[in-house]
Amino acid sequence: MIYLDNAATSFPKAPRVGEEMSRYIRKIGANIGRGIYESAIEAGNTALLLRGGLAKLFSHTYGLDNIVFTSGATAGINQVLFGYLEKGDHVIVSSLEHNAVMRSLNALAEMGVEHSCVPVDAQGRTEPADIERCIRKNTRLMLFSHASNVSGALFPIEEAARIAYRHGIPIAIDAAQTAGCVPINFDKLRLDALIVPAHKGLMGPQGIGALLMSSQFACRLRPLIYGGTGSFSDSEIQPQRNPDKFESGTQNIPGIYGFLAAVQYILLRDVNEYHRQEVRLADTLISGISGLPLRVISGCDGSGALDKGVGIVSVSFKNVDNSLASFALESDYGIATRCGLHCSPAAHRALGTFPNGTVRFSFGENTTLEDIDITVQAIATILKD
């Protein structure tokens, strides 16, 4: 199989991810913070090592207590939106947001929270000046997807962060498509929250992620889940100490072990070079299918520029049904893609591909130029037939 669905989840996972998860289940088994025996202490130390690895990877120096584990990016997004915003508040997002954001915003609208979407061009790119035009007197938060899961277009977070800082508005970044693939410096950007899942560019397991926060933002954020934390057990009031405040219940400890193995692997990666390779693969695919009866949507533009996009290319077939093309790619050529709206109808509306969606090709560490050549030939043959 040629696996080109890494925007959904990475495959294969980083070395030792499965082994470490299995080792925990077979040989450790203890909960975190629920005992002082050897295996419980090891589990707690593993969680601490993971927080430290994430802090190093994303240049976060606000203290390990301000890095909390979630069940993934969706949980992190919900924690930020529902834990921070109140009736009468206004939030700014991009026009390419995932349903993790848009469904949350529509639920918040019923509670009196407003939102604005920053416009994009035909390839999903944003002009920073348009961000500033969306600011209102009641704007309390900016939350942007760092890269679109449909077009791969990179959001101008450096400019957005400067605008947010200048206006005193907290800014959160959803790094679902960029964590591990594009360098992210939490401190330099002066972010308030960074949301990452383990299972995409970080090459870890599904069902776990992390929310990295500034101290001030973490202090102002309300938890969404209340319960036992293994600490302050004499009190029926939720602890206000981080990370306990946001980590009620039993953690996904097998996931923590696998996540740590993945982060340790990614820390050895030259992220800039990895991003350069993804862009090279995207540019090669775009060049190879140019001139065919397709509409190609990608933040990458064939120039090799690293500030435009990540390794995602969406294609709309003009003479063949998208779903039939995606099926043929897998059944006839062993090429795995994702067809449809990618849980991002807002993005497809903004890009003009709603309701049919696109066939999405997304690359990972194991994708080769030979894979791209085979894919180009397969697309050409499907269109010819």
Structure write-up:
The structure is a single chain. Strand 5, helix 6 and strand 6 form a beta-alpha-beta unit. The protein contains 13 helices and 13 strands. A 7-stranded mixed β-sheet has the order 2-8-7-6-5-3-4, with helices on both faces. Strands 9-10-13-12 form a 4-stranded antiparallel β-sheet, covered by helices on one side. It has 385 residues and is α/β, with parallel strands linked by helices. The chain has helices spanning 17-28, 38-57, 73-84, 99-109, 128-133, 157-167, 186-189, 215-220, 253-266, 271-289, 322-333, 345-351, 369-384; strands at residues 2-3, 67-70, 90-94, 114-118, 139-145, 171-174, 193-197, 209-213, 294-297, 312-317, 335-336, 338-340, 358-362.
For this entry, give a set of tags.
385 residues, alpha/beta, seven-stranded mixed β-sheet, 13 helices, 13 strands
What would you say about this model in short?
The protein is of the alpha/beta class.
Rg is 21 Å
Helix-strand sequence: EHHEHEHEHEHEHEEHHHEEHEEHEH
Question: How would you sum up the major sheet?
Answer: 7 strands, mixed
Give the structural class: alpha/beta
Number of helices: 13
Strand content: 5-15%
Mean pLDDT: 97
Percent range for helical residues? 25-40%
Count of distinct strands:
13
N- to C-terminal distance: 22 Å
What is the strand and helix layout of this fold?
Elements: E1 2-3, H1 17-28, H2 38-57, E2 67-70, H3 73-84, E3 90-94, H4 99-109, E4 114-118, H5 128-133, E5 139-145, H6 157-167, E6 171-174, H7 186-189, E7 193-197, E8 209-213, H8 215-220, H9 253-266, H10 271-289, E9 294-297, E10 312-317, H11 322-333, E11 335-336, E12 338-340, H12 345-351, E13 358-362, H13 369-384
Parallel strand pairs: 1-11, 3-4, 3-5, 5-6, 6-7
Antiparallel strand pairs: 2-8, 7-8, 9-10, 10-13, 12-13
